[in-house]
From TrEMBL:
It comes from the Eukaryota. InterPro entries: BAG_chaperone_regulator, BAG_dom_sf, BAG_domain, Ubiquitin-like_dom, Ubiquitin-like_domsf. One of its GO terms (molecular function) is protein-folding chaperone binding. GO terms for cellular component: cytoplasm. Residues 40-110 form the Ubiquitin-like domain. This is BAG family molecular chaperone regulator 3. Keywords: Chaperone. GO terms for biological process: protein stabilization.
């Protein structure tokens, strides 16, 4: 049987072991001449790396049922476990007593390599998310101060008090610098929602200041236009080269 297989026996072992399907769908080793006499529990010594665990299970339990017990002890799900007895990985449906497991027998527990890699990837992902959340939180604290300043300017305008255009422009520049910082934060998971939230705060403040800036400019006596192409040339200046 392949060492990586945990559910389907090989053709050679099918000839050695008879299997049957339980009502729940689990393929288990078929018992021959099972008795009605109550069966004793076995104490199994589980070696999991440097950790030693002792559990008690029924002698006629399957290795799959042992994995369920070990889930409570180790936190590993049955699909993440590999049980080795007498140098051989055991199938979920194999019975302990029919494989020669006795009281105080030693069983080696190994974590499936695929689950190790998945957990490593998840840990790295969580670390990235936490780093992003801390960076976003720092920006949010700075934005709180800028938002307060925008509110003060809004109240001044509402009261008819003119605000320096330099003050408004400076605030917009500070907000845009924070927007750039947010864009440079690689976010995923929960950090994405927080990043978007702070981005909306920046946009709202900038839009508010843009409106106030236009209102502030409207109070000035000089009208400024950017459509220079609409200006007519001054009269009597078409032939400057004729002047001595």
């Amino acid at each position: 049987m392949s060492e990586n297989s945990t559910t389907t026996p090989s053709n050679d072992e099918m000839a050695e072991i008879e299997w049957e399907m339980r009502p729940g769908g689990m393929l288990v080793q078929k018992r021959i001449g099972a008795s009605d006499v109550s069966t004793p529990n076995l104490r199994l010594r589980i070696a999991f790396g440097a950790v030693r665990i002792e559990i008690s299970v029924n002698s006629q339990a399957t290795f799959g049922e042992v994995k369920k017990v070990l889930t409570v002890e180790t936190g590993l799900q049955p699909g993440e476990q590999r049980l080795i007895f007498r140098g051989k990985e055991r199938e979920n449906g194999e019975y302990l007593d029919m494989c020669g497991v006795k009281d105080r027998s030693k069983v080696i527990l190994m974590e499936d390599p695929v689950s190790i890699e998945k957990r490593s990837i998840e840990m790295r992902r969580n670390a990235r998310i936490q780093t992003a959340l801390r960076a976003i939180s720092d920006i949010a604290l700075e934005l709180d101060k800028l938002v307060d300043q925008v509110s003060v300017i809004e109240k001044s305008f509402s009261s008819g008090v003119k605000v320096s255009e330099v003050q408004i422009t400076t605030l917009i520049e500070m907000l845009m610098r924070h927007a750039i910082k947010l864009d440079n934060i690689p976010a995923e998971g929960d950090a994405t929602a927080q990043k978007n939230l702070q981005g909306k705060r920046v946009r709202k403040c900038v839009e508010t200041l843009d409106v106030l800036k236009l209102s502030n400019a409207g109070l000035k006596p000089v009208v400024v236009t950017t459509k220079w192409e609409t200006f007519d040339p001054p009269p009597n200046t078409a032939h400057w080269e004729n002047f001595d």
